Amino acid sequence: MLNEREAESCYLGQFIPLQYHHNMLMDANRMDNFKAAIERQVFEGAKVLELGGGTGVLSWFAAQKAAKVYCVEFNPDMVAEARRLLAKNAHGEKVEVIHADAFEYLPPEPVDVVICEMIHVAMLREKQVEVIENFKQRYTEKFGGPLPIFIPEAVVMAVQPLHHTYDFWGYQAPIIQFLQPGVFSADTRELAQPALYSVIDFTQPNSLQIQWEGCFTIEQAGTLSALRFVTKNILAVVMETSSTIDWLNHYMSLPVPEPIDVKPGDILEVSFNYRAGGSFASLQNSLKVSLKSTAASRAAHLSLVHS
Description:
By secondary structure, this protein is α+β, with helices and mostly antiparallel strands.
């Protein structure tokens, strides 16, 4: 019988269609920022490991300076594709594509940098956190310290209440949507400022359980119908300029269980609890949203107090 992780393997991004991996090569937001971070963190002669290599492009970025790159990929079709593509590119011979499970593989020698891009918004579905936490433990047991540099170095996640209209040609359908950051949508209105709910620092031990409970002060009148989940991957920290090289995932708009009419000054209480790498449903099922107090009720209370 398959264990839980094996049973979930089809959700790891390991067996998504080859064309999806090809589309990632055309994603300028992803490619530009990973290229910049890898160019910064990988030094001449470095040893590099990539966990979940896909087409091999991130390993190839590293190979421009690295002496050796170990590129681990679980999907045999992607292993063949990465080898085919790397053979067409200068320095591709420095990348060894290894058909192995990222949960089990360790390089034959210590490495300086680990690249891992198994990332989905809110750190759901794909196993980035679990893979890296598992790797750190096994790596330390085999090689001792220090740990390699990780790309990304950290992940910052926030949540924000939205008025979101789920009208599709008159068909009402509250569904999860993924929206391009910075692109205006007439269907969406921000009701309050976003709140930070989790920071994952890959240099430190991280729990797989992500939970948050907090409040928002509503700034605009509307119907709270969704929560926007924002995921910013800090690929590299540039100490000399106190800046970062980031990759911002698509926003995820998640419908709330029941829409709530809100007005400026209302206090909204939100809580959720999910496991990194878990399903979207696990987040949806744990989501609780309620009005803690309204501006009108507080005003009435104050009026009674001062009368």
